[in-house]
Specification:
alpha+beta; endopeptidase fold (from Nostoc punctiforme); 6-stranded antiparallel beta sheet; two-stranded antiparallel sheet; 6 helices
């Protein structure tokens, strides 16, 4: 699925809810290596360079947090805005969504549908959050090389390249983090290797979400 394949619906932030997927492209703020975004987009044959997950009104995660929109993400950093719990500026962070949006363009959303945030699903998220929050960004050159080669030459279908990147939870790049959360919340199959996923994975029509759950078509939050 690409932004050029169809005319996408534009919605506002009132449509956002916990679990929704945020996809970005073409972001190049001051302080970030200007080549990182381009490298990710080039090797994944896609416009997508970052993915995160919306969390709304997260007092059930931490009682000190106010209501509002937040994003769970992993980035190389340093961000200009701190994690709302531990103050970290890089790696796996929970951030105010408004801070994340500052100076950004090209923000797209896939809404999580047919899903209920009840005590059971919140407990699953909290376990995954405890395992992932504060972990460093995955800068392992071998993981980057294998995943990049697989995406560039095999469009993510090379079994040999996939076997080179074993799933792990000691560090995460952005799409690995959100894939991990979705697996642990039983939204993706337990067998999915979250560590090999790239941002374009979340834009694909055949993303392997477990029924009856689904992800909406891409819609535009900000052009």
């Amino acid at each position: 699925m690409s932004t050029s394949e169809c005319v996408l619906e534009i919605k506002d932030r009132e449509s956002l809810k916990s679990g929704d997927i945020v996809l970005c492209h073409g972001y190049n703020p001051k302080g970030l290596d200007p080549g990182i975004d381009g490298v990710i987009e080039f090797f994944t044959h896609s416009p997508w360079e970052h993915v995160g997950m919306i969390i709304k009104d997260p007092s059930w995660i931490d009682a000190s947090l106010n209501d509002g929109l937040y994003i769970y993400q992993s980035g190389t950093g340093p961000n200009s805005y701190p994690d709302v719990i531990n103050g970290n500026l890089r790696g796996v962070t929970l951030n105010h969504f408004d801070d994340f949006l500052a100076n950004r363009e090209h923000i797209y959303i896939r809404s999580l549908e047919n899903f209920t945030w009840d005590d059971n699903t919140k407990e699953k998220f909290l376990k995954a959050f405890a395992e992932s929050h504060g972990k460093p960004y995955d800068t392992n050159w071998w993981n980057w090389f294998c995943t990049g080669m697989n995406s560039f030459f095999c469009y993510g279908k090379c079994k040999l390249c996939r076997c080179c990147v074993k799933r792990h939870i000691n560090n995460f790049w952005c799409s690995a983090l959100i894939s991990y959360i979705y697996v642990k919340m039983t939204l993706f199959p337990e067998s999915l290797d979250w560590s090999e996923q790239t941002p374009v994975f979340f834009a694909n029509n055949d993303v392997p979400i477990v029924e009856p759950y689904s992800l909406s078509k891409l819609w535009i939050l900000r052009k």
